[in-house]
């Protein structure tokens, strides 16, 4: 019952690693599934779908992004409930996927709740149903295959760690290969059936080879020595836990079996290592991190985190050496030009734009552990509260209707709740009798939570005394929080005579991180321009998405010295601050003024703007995160 | 009473040739993959789409309003059936309606993220898979995606951007004479739509025939190896992500050749195709917001295609 001839596996040109990873996981399901990471248009999904055709007895269960929770977990079988009043389990996708391949396209876009359900099952091999009066356990062993484009936001390490294997795919760089790809694709699109037919023999051969490998697999042995090698590789890569060792071993066994051998060789392990290790490897300064590699800041033990800034700096420094530095000054030794006069600054502005590295992130470890905890407790409550009254957002599950207003009914869930009682209720000829207690509402999740716009002072005075470094550190900690909460972030930088929207609203913290890393400093301080640019952007946002919770985070020392309309720079800034206050836009100012003589303009600005006010010096990263979080509470 | 409103004839549109061409190409070859129209308000974007669909009785424009809910888009449980009989049946959504039709999304850049996701899902596979509210259902959903956006109001996610085969930039007509003509025709149309439409009957008919002929030969148009090579080279030089750009360039060139009545694509087809396929695919960093100079790109295309 093929609905359409998929592109054949063996007709995929190049992408050898991707193909091998898929073969390994189909030969040996114990390798823990495959995560395919890559830019768009690199045959990710094509390969997965093609694999399903190769595997004869394995079905590919696709989990679409629009899935709702009860479809994943299983629920009460409706007809049975209505007819006989008994609760029987209607199997969910997790049960259906038992022994099969569970395929999630764009796995990084899946709702958190659902991802968690799937990962729990993937980890334990069983799936517990505890809902609507049904309580049972179902086997749920499946090969998880996910694809993702890192541009769309990353997976948290806990999730990527579940995938045994990971491959990164890129577009081919050789003309001849690209032409070959084009040709095959065009021939395929012209006549799919015929194209597939031409590859049938090859597909069959591959299928048989995989089947033979599957049969051989239980007999494949590994010497003690090679087991030690696996462990050593995992240790060297500093992988968390023991998962890497085991996956590595299993992958090597699969490779041996696929190559028709009964004993694992060292070469097998070396071949398997990149698939297993790359996305688990942590902080090795000499290795540029892969898109999915654990974001080192996220789940580290304290002592590892302590080493962190150094490694970042080393990497930073390495990159920066390639940048032309007209005056030969390295970023580490920026002069304390705090007290410098205007004219000097002007002269140097063009030549001396510097890029400060990202500073201090030490507190992140404890901070994130704590924040995660809080989040799971506050959980959906906050989200749905913020979203109440709208029918926007993705419907993820049904919940009992709160007393009072009845909106957004999850009909199927309601009927299901009423079903078991129909036998006793049915009196007046109605097909189904529903009482208030049965009503279920849709719980929706909208991924855009808050919108944080950073308005960052990038003027020369900020470059002083490594203040920019500290500022960047603080912003990064906010970015990581934003990432977890799926907020969108943007960044406006102001310096010289202008403010620039460096990064428009995006959910890709990666991009924000990059923008921040490369943020140059130097020149005058057009504070009014910056505030106004940020304000305009957020006002637009409020119009476009009335449900969004925009917030402006201004980072400045307040020493405005460039105006917008040629007036007094500070006065102009205060005028805009008043407008911001009047609009009710929540804002927060991080004052970075230091030194002997402090003008306190930022503090005045905060008062005028009705903004929360913090001094950077007194502030630890987690305080900032706390502050932002308290501001984004539903009361706004 | 004539309940079918007379629609402004496609052939009466003034200017915006690129947009017209891009739309026609998608009608000739619906597998091409849609068009994204970027531009200011009031540049006849929506008129053009509707006008084109009006040429063919079988072609419909399905609107996806940005306020649509996910249920409305992917489909959901049929309420009536469920309440009356307790049976679960699938109530098709907009994606089902859009099968073999044009799916038109005005201001697509303002569309909710989660809707974009499901849209991508369906557009990628040509199938809409629904797993919700007790319904497991999948149905074909091959549609020509036509989106419009005003870039000033925000960007589109790269992933969705990449799904569009073509993109065109529209601007208000700059030539005063042409502007006058736009207004004149519009006024004439509003005064008496039917007789206005009658004036264009012949032009409409011949365009229709052209498109139908192109449709009939598009599968047989071929591209020589060196054309494929040129496309690949352009992609590599511009460092566009993945392979979709190459494929789209070639498919567009093939369709352009078909529209010209030829059965083999030539370099000039490719260079025109590149101008439609590449603008939204150039790699951007957050710093260079589209600053990769288009004239450099044109130069490159010209050089590659001239050889």
UniProtKB/TrEMBL annotation, chain A:
One Pfam family linked to the record: AAA_5
SUPFAM superfamilies, sorted: P-loop containing nucleoside triphosphate hydrolases, vWA-like
Region (Disordered): 281-392
Residues annotated as domain VWFA: 451-631
Annotated signal peptide: none
InterPro entries: ATPase_dyneun-rel_AAA, BchD/ChlD_VWA, ChlI/MoxR_AAA_lid, Mg-chelatase_DI-like, P-loop_NTPase, VWF_A, vWFA_dom_sf
Composition skew (Basic and acidic residues), residue ranges: 283-304
Alphabetical list of SMART domains matching this protein: VWA
GO molecular function: ATP binding; ATP hydrolysis activity
Compositional bias segments (type: Basic residues): 374-388
Highest taxon listed in the record's lineage: Bacteria
Family to which this protein belongs: Belongs to the Mg-chelatase subunits D/I family.
Identification of the protein by name: Magnesium chelatase subunit D
UniProtKB/TrEMBL annotation, chain B:
Highest taxon of source: Bacteria
Gene3D superfamilies assigned to the protein according to its UniProt record, in alphabetical order: Magnesium chelatase subunit I, C-Terminal domain (1.10.8.80), P-loop containing nucleotide triphosphate hydrolases (3.40.50.300)
Entries under Pfam families matching the protein: AAA_5 (PF07728), AAA_lid_2 (PF17863)
Transmembrane segments: none
Residue ranges of domain AAA+ ATPase in the record: 31-173
GO molecular function, one term: ATP hydrolysis activity
PANTHER family found in the cross-reference section: MAGNESIUM-CHELATASE SUBUNIT CHLI (PTHR32039), MAGNESIUM-CHELATASE SUBUNIT CHLI-2, CHLOROPLASTIC (PTHR32039:SF9)
Name the record gives this protein: Magnesium chelatase subunit D/magnesium chelatase subunit I
């Amino acid at each position: 019952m093929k609905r359409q001839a998929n592109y054949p596996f063996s007709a995929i040109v190049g992408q050898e690693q991707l193909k091998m990873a898929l073969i390994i996981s189909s030969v040996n399901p114990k390798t823990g599934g495959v995560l395919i990471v890559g830019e768009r248009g690199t045959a990710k999904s094509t390969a997965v779908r093609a694999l399903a055709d190769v595997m004869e007895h394995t079905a590919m269960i696709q989990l679409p992004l629009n899935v709702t929770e009860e479809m994943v977990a299983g629920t009460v079988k409706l007809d049975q409930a209505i007819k006989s009043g008994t609760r029987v389990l209607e199997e969910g996708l997790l049960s259906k996927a038992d022994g099969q391949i569970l395929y999630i396209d764009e796995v990084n876009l899946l709702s958190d709740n659902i991802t968690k359900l799937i990962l729990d099952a993937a980890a334990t091999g069983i799936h517990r149903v505890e809902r609507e009066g049904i309580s049972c356990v179902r086997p749920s062993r499946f090969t998880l295959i996910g694809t993702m484009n890192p541009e769309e936001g990353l997976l948290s390490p806990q999730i990527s760690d579940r995938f045994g294997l990971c491959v990164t795919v890129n577009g081919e760089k050789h003309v001849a290969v690209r032409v070959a790809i084009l040709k095959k694709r065009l021939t395929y699109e012209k006549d799919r059936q015929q194209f597939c037919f031409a590859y049938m023999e090859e597909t069959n051969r591959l299928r048989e080879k995989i089947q033979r490998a599957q049969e051989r697999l239980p007999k494949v042995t590994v010497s003690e020595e090679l087991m030690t090698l696996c462990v050593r590789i995992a240790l060297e890569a500093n992988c968390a836990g023991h998962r890497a060792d085991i996956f590595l071993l299993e992958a090597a066994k699969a490779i041996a079996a696929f190559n028709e051998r009964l004993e694992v060789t060292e070469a097998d392990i070396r071949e398997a290592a990149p698939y297993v290790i790359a996305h688990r490897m942590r902080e090795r300064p000499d290795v540029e991190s892969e898109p999915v590699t654990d974001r080192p800041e996220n789940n580290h033990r304290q002592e590892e985190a302590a080493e962190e800034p150094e490694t970042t700096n080393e990497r930073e420094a390495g990159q920066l050496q390639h940048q032309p530095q007209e005056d030969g000054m390295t970023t580490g030794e920026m002069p304390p030009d705090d007290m410098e006069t205007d004219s000097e600054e002007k002269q140097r502005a063009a030549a001396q734009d510097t890029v400060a590295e990202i500073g201090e992130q030490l507190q992140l470890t404890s901070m994130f552990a704590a924040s995660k905890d809080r989040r799971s407790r506050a959980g959906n409550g906050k989200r749905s509260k913020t979203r109440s009254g709208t029918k926007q957002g993705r419907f993820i599950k049904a919940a009992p209707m709160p007393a009072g207003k009845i909106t957004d009914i999850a009909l199927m869930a309601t009927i299901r709740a009423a079903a078991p009682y129909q036998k006793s209720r049915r009196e007046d000829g109605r097909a189904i009798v529903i009482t208030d207690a049965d009503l279920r509402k849709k719980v929706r999740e909208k991924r855009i939570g808050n919108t944080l716009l950073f308005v960052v002072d990038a003027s020369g005075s900020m470059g002083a005394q490594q203040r920019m470094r500290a500022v960047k550190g603080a912003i990064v900690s906010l970015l990581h929080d934003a990432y977890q909460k799926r907020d969108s972030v943007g960044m406006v930088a102001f310096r010289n005579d202008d403010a620039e929207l460096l990064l428009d609203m995006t959910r890709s913290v990666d991009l924000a991180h990059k923008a921040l890393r490369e943020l140059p400093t130097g020149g005058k301080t057009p504070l009014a321009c910056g505030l106004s640019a940020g304000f305009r952007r957020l006002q637009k946002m409020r119009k476009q998405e009335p449900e969004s919770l925009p917030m402006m985070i201004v980072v400045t020392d307040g020493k405005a010295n460039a105006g917008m309309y040629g007036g007094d720079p500070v006065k102009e800034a205060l005028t805009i601050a008043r407008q911001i206050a009047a609009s009710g836009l929540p804002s927060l100012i991080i004052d970075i003024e230091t030194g002997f003589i402090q003008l306190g303009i930022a503090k005045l600005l905060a008062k005028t703007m009705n903004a929360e006010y913090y001094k950077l010096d007194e502030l630890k990263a987690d305080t900032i995160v706390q502050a932002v979080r308290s501001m984004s509470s539903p009361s706004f | 009473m004539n309940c079918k409103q007379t629609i402004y004839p496609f052939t009466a549109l003034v200017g915006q040739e690129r947009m017209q061409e891009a739309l026609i190409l998608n009608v000739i070859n619906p597998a091409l993959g849609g068009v994204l129209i970027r531009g200011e308000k009031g540049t006849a974007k929506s008129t053009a789409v509707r006008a084109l669909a009006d040429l063919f009785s079988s072609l419909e424009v399905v609107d996806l309003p940005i306020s649509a809910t996910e249920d409305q888009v992917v489909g959901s449980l049929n309420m009536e059936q469920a309440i009356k009989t307790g049976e679960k049946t699938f109530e098709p959504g907009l994606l089902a309606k859009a099968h073999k039709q044009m799916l038109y999304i005005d201001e697509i850049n303002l569309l909710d993220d989660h809707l974009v996701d499901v849209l991508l899902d369906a557009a990628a596979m040509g199938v809409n898979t629904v797993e919700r509210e007790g319904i497991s259902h999948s149905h074909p959903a091959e549609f020509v995606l036509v989106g419009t956006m005003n870039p000033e109001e925000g960007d589109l996610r790269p992933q969705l951007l990449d799904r569009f085969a073509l993109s065109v930039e529209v601007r208000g007509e700059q030539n005063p004479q042409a502007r006058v003509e736009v207004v004149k025709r519009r006024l004439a149309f509003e005064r008496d739509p039917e007789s206005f439409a009658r004036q264009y009957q012949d032009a409409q008919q011949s365009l229709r025939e052209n498109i139908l002929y192109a449709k009939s030969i598009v599968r047989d148009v071929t591209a020589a190896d060196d054309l494929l090579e040129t496309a690949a080279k352009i992609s590599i030089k511009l460092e566009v992500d993945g392979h979709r750009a190459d494929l789209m360039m070639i498919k567009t060139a093939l369709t352009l050749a078909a529209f010209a009545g030829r059965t083999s694509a030539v370099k000039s087809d490719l260079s025109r195709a590149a101008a439609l396929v590449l603008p939204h695919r150039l790699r951007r960093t957050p710093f260079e917001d589209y600053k990769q100079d288009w004239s450099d790109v044109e130069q490159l295309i010209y050089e590659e295609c001239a050889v």
